[in-house]
Structure formats: structure tokens, C-alpha cells
User: Which sequence fits this backbone?
């Protein structure tokens, strides 16, 4: 008799907080499906586990808006195209941009601000 595949769960270890606050990391478990992006998992967390998680994205997976950038396992990635690991993924804000909150950084250059 064939066994149904066990439901897989991926863990995201996410840096949280705002400027001036103590750095902390929260772990979240999300249902894993082959081909999921890191952004898919972040959006799932916001919808099902913690609506206060600050993330930024616009085009979702067209790799056009470039607003979803973050550190994924220590590498600068577009979270919408970075594949989620079925095990554990560390997600942190961009290190060289001013932090706004959680994974959101100020990615607009000073010369582009009004
Ligand atoms: S959400 Fe637009 S490039 Fe990632």
C-alpha cells in the first residue's frame, strides 16, 4: 500500500526589530512545497502567523521591482526568486541600507528623495 507523503515543514529564522531596538530572531514554521520562494513563505507567515512582520515587495515574482531584496542565508537575494530551503532559511535585512523595521530597509538613494 502506498503511503501518502508526509507534510513537509520549512523553518525560517528571521531577524526582527526596528532601529535602536535589541536585535532578535524569530523562528517560523511554514508548509513547504517544492519550488516555493522565500517571499512565498514570508507572505504565508504574514497571512497565517504574524501580520506584524514587515516585508516589502511589489511585483511578487517578475524580478522587476527589486524591492524585495534581503539577506538569505547570508547572500543578497531577491526573496521573490530565491528558492526556499526545505530545511532552515535565515532571512535578514540588507546590511548596508538603513533599517526601517524587520526586513524592510531604505533602498531609495538620498538623491532620489524629494
Ligand atoms: S517582488 Fe519585485 S523583484 Fe521581487
Assistant:
Amino acid at each position: 500500500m502506498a503511503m501518502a507523503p508526509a507534510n513537509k515543514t520549512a523553518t525560517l529564522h528571521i531577524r526582527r526589530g526596528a532601529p535602536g531596538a535589541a536585535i532578535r530572531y524569530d523562528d517560523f514554521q511554514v508548509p513547504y512545497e517544492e519550488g516555493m520562494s522565500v517571499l512565498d513563505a514570508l507572505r504565508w507567515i504574514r497571512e497565517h502567523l504574524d501580520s506584524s512582520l514587515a516585508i516589502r515587495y511589489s511585483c511578487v515574482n517578475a524580478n522587476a521591482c527589486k524591492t524585495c531584496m534581503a539577506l538569505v542565508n547570508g547572500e543578497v537575494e531577491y526573496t521573490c526568486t530565491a528558492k526556499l530551503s526545505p530545511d532552515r532559511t535565515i532571512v535578514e535585512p540588507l546590511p548596508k541600507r538603513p533599517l526601517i523595521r524587520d526586513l524592510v530597509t531604505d533602498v531609495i538613494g538620498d538623491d532620489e528623495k524629494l
Summary: The beta strands are 9-16, 24-31, 69-72, 75-78, 88-92, 99-101, 104-105.
